[in-house]
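hey
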């Protein structure tokens, strides 16, 4: 039976200007047997420039990398970035997420709610390291039952793990001297096929697998990273040799990550080329909705040892151009295609500045499609108010962030439209205190 995962809550502090803890809710407080996410799948985040919208998406990306990456905290470039983006007052980052695993979209008495928490801060040498990591779980109603500890690590030491002594001793050896630079979940991945067979460890490793699966399902698009490949696990990474379903599932996910279209240019293994062609065919159908004169998208490939170096060529019949020279709007749609496809097909997607370079009519239609037909989750930041008209009737779908780190949830209020109140500065803690006269003497005129 296929399981599916849904993000319930994300909270953090310590990134950029977010000094105080902020919390995003993606579902109501009470979760019971009739869990129904249909009216909660999309969330738009609004706020003034510099209020912290990008910090939210950045925090999600960092959390994913801490869970999945083998070398995120050992990479000097990442360390340099952290020193730039960690809040100077907190000097540490705290992140937490709740997610649910269910076996059925209908009534499910066996659903599990997990809570994952992780904290990083600089050591005496100024290098950021993991100082706390916790995975908790509970069954039953979300608001009623208590979490039990799956594992807890502090300052590089496993404090607790839900397994028998022999298995516990094995994981102590495997994680020795690694827990400040890698998450315990990532360490477990290296030997998970074998460790699942350890006596008294099956439930522990199944919980770890659930955290890995939901992390794989989270996809993050940040404007400043558009020119970089978002591989959170080394492409050369080899799982333990095994015929288990675990290995097969992860190999499939890693290969799918290699097929995703980013900026129209890509290096990929030759044996992945046929799968990549299928992805480009889907992209072609997507772009044709916006560019009706597009005949086809062709792949220009050149051999480079075991790889093909590829680029996309837009064929308009009378002429063809490299996708690099397309309009900024079409290039943005090319970059967003895979993320939107993830959200439509069951993934969890965070997109920063989704509205940039996209016509507001198209933006609203895309959001409406995800709301009506999507099977995953989409959370995006935007300044465009058009999506508000689509989302205003849904629950937990419009959040505002103030400059003092407050999250304000939109709650239906009679016939008032959120876009009208927002423009008028009528949202609590978000007054737009700028008038045309304020520019006199500042701008020429």
């Amino acid at each position: 039976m296929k399981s599916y995962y849904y993000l319930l809550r994300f909270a953090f502090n310590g990134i950029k200007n977010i000094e105080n803890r902020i919390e995003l809710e993606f579902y109501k407080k009470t979760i019971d047997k009739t869990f129904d996410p249909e009216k909660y799948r999309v969330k738009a985040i609004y706020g003034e420039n510099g209020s912290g919208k990008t910090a939210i998406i950045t925090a999600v990306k960092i959390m994913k990398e801490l869970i999945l990456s083998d070398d995120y905290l050992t990479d000097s470039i990442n360390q340099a970035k952290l020193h730039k983006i960690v809040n100077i007052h907190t000097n540490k980052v705290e992140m937490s997420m709740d997610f649910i695993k269910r076996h059925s979209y209908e009534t499910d008495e066996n659903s599990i709610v997990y809570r994952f928490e992780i904290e990083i801060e600089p050591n005496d040498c100024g290098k950021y390291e993991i100082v706390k990591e916790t995975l908790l779980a509970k069954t039953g109603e979300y608001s009623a039952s208590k979490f039990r500890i799956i594992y807890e690590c502090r300052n590089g030491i496993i404090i607790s793990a839900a397994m028998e002594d022999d298995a516990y001793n094995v994981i102590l050896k495997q994680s020795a001297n690694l827990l400040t630079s890698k998450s315990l979940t990532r360490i477990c991945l290296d030997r998970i096929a074998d460790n699942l067979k350890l006596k008294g460890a099956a439930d522990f490793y199944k919980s770890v697998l659930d955290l890995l699966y939901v992390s794989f399902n989270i996809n993050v698009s940040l404007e400043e990273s558009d020119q970089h490949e978002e591989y959170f696990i080394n492409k050369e990474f080899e799982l333990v040799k095994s015929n288990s379903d675990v290995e097969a599932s992860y190999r499939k996910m890693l290969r799918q990550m290699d097929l995703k279209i980013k900026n129209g240019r890509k290096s990929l293994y030759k044996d992945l080329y046929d799968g990549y062609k299928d992805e480009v065919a889907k992209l072609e159908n997507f772009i044709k909705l916006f560019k009706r004169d597009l005949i086809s998208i062709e792949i220009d490939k050149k051999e480079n040892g075991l790889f093909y170096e590829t680029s996309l060529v837009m064929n308009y019949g009378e002429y063809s151009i490299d996708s690099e020279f397309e309009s900024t709007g079409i290039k943005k749609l090319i970059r967003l295609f895979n993320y939107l496809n993830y959200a439509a097909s069951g993934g969890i997607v965070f997109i920063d500045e989704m509205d940039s370079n996209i016509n507001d009519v198209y933006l609203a239609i895309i959001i409406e499609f995800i709301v009506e037909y999507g099977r995953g989750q989409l959370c995006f930041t935007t300044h465009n108010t058009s999506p508000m008209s689509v989302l205003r009737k849904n629950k937990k779908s419009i959040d505002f962030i103030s400059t003092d780190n407050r999250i304000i949830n939109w709650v239906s209020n009679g016939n008032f439209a959120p876009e009208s109140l927002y423009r008028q500065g009528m949202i609590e803690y978000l007054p737009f205190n700028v008038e045309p006269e304020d520019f006199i003497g500042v701008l020429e005129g």
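The CA atoms of residues 389 and 419 lie 7 Å apart. The domain at 4-437 is CATH 3.40.50.300 (Rossmann fold).
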